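Database export, one record per block. Field names are fixed; values are copied verbatim from the stored entry.
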Amino acid sequence: MRHAPPTSANLRQFAETLLSIAMTFILVDLLREPQTLRRLVLMVLLAVGAQALAALVLYTLPDALAERTLVRLARIGYPPGGVIRYIEDNPALDERAIGTWVDPNALGGILAIAASMITPQIFARRPVLRWRWLAIAVAGIVTVALVLTYSRASMLAFAFGLLLIAARYRKLLMVMIAGFVLLLFLPQTQAYIERFAAGFMGADLATQMRIGEYTDALRLISRYPINGVGFTGSPDIDIYTDAASMYLIMANQIGLVGLGIFTTTILSVFIYGLRAWQQAHANPEIDAIYLGYHAALLTAMVNGGFDLYFFRLDFQASITLFWLLVALALASARLARESTLAPANPPLLNEVR
């Protein structure tokens, strides 16, 4: 916090971020039972499934009715108006699903992470739910809601998560190929494909704005490469710290040294998880949750390349989620390494009839 006096909000958010990071160490130590990790997957499946369903319902409502419904949340901090979002903030273009979130990109990131966590349950030998069809239904609802956020970064990140899952469950690769072919040739999806293509070619306004942000971020990094400029703003009036990339905003604020420490830490998490790959596969109780947590973390890392909310201080829920994923990936890998081939407990809801 170097170039301006920190406000009380800056200090609170900075402290909350440190607590989120510290939580990783606490959770890794506490999460020592496979059933605990399985229950967390179940909680994500139900909670995010409900959020995705709410997003779909609000998306189908008339805009005025959806806005009146959402602004009733203003008493708990939700914006009092202007909450319906459109592509490029242009009402003439398609509406973007937001659920009860404010930012469709943030919602897209959460849905992509959750979908990566849930998908292995469709193929698991010991799913957390007895009813596999329910996992399929929730994954489908979450994926449809993700598509309707029009968050290209989240969709791309989800694709990377699916590729990791497909390395274990080869049937998923065939499903992905079939889905990709349908997206390419269905008349209803052509506008969506064109938007993706425009993004890759830098032909739309949103992508051009991001390219401008990336250029400005590189200028700031070139001036303050080692330690960055801190969390209270830029010392130069011609540059700013925000950029639509977690990695660039890290380099802006904590410098290349901080970014290097972060990158090394996350790579270490994946290396530790990779060493448990075979042990996890040998234990059907852990296999799917281990894979889901690592796929979710990979999804978050890819998404972070094009969005900033996993490090921007005023997105505390997203920051906490990211470090929770780190803890869950580490804990699941450790349990896989420590596991034996003894018979596992029954699936979590087998006794629910």
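Remark 1: Residues 8-338 form one domain.
Remark 2: The chain has one domain: 8-338.
End of record.
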